[in-house]
Amino acid sequence: MRAAQRRAGELGLQTAHFTGRRRWTDAVLRDVVPKARSWNELFDMLGLESRSANSRVAVKANAHRLGLSLAHLNPPDRLPTVPLLAIPTDLNQLRKAAPSIAMAWFLLRGQPVSVPVEPVGYDFVAATSEGFKTVQVKTCVRIDESTGGYLVAIAPRRNHGADRGRLVPYDPDEVDLLFIVDGGGGMYLIPMTVVAGRTSLSLNAYADYRCGGAASLLRTVDAGAASGAPG
């Protein structure tokens, strides 16, 4: 098709009315794009019944080729109803945030980190002053009623084989360090050799391995202060 179009151009023949698999011509697209107020309206004008992502990509590609802007079809970003600084902390997100917190701890101490590109039995590798160390990050938000400390599960569940669903301790030859972030922002760096064979532990018993705190990251700013209103 491209070869035929090029040859037609060399011969001075118009091909704009050829649509290929499209149901509209370039001229129609040029005409309706400025008039449409939404993607659905544009689809209606082009006679497209499909509202799929593929249909939108096809329209975008042809509009881009013709130098047509589609920016007016995208609704404006919804303004937040709460100031960003006043958005409350959601501890359900701690598991997602903890690896970044752990890597920042190492990086701030000049210890480079590397994240594996394939799934392995640890979260990242740190090039520490004691050599390369594999690090597994864990989080906990539940308080152990008997000790008053955070209770953290430090063993993964098997998802296959005879051990399916069972907590199986990490292999100390595979994971060197546990980096734990609790629901209050406390951070712990515990050698795996210290807790080898364990599936859970209460952090009260590991105060000697506390390596700092990220409590300010979990703190919600007062709404009045965040908006600049006098306190």
Automatic annotation (TrEMBL):
InterPro entries: PD(D/E)XK_Endonuc, tRNA_endonuc-like_dom_sf. GO terms for molecular function: nucleic acid binding. It holds the Pfam family PDDEXK_5. It comes from the Bacteria. Residues 101-196 form the PD(D/E)XK endonuclease domain. Signal peptide: none annotated. This is PD(D/E)XK endonuclease domain-containing protein. It comes from Stackebrandtia albiflava.
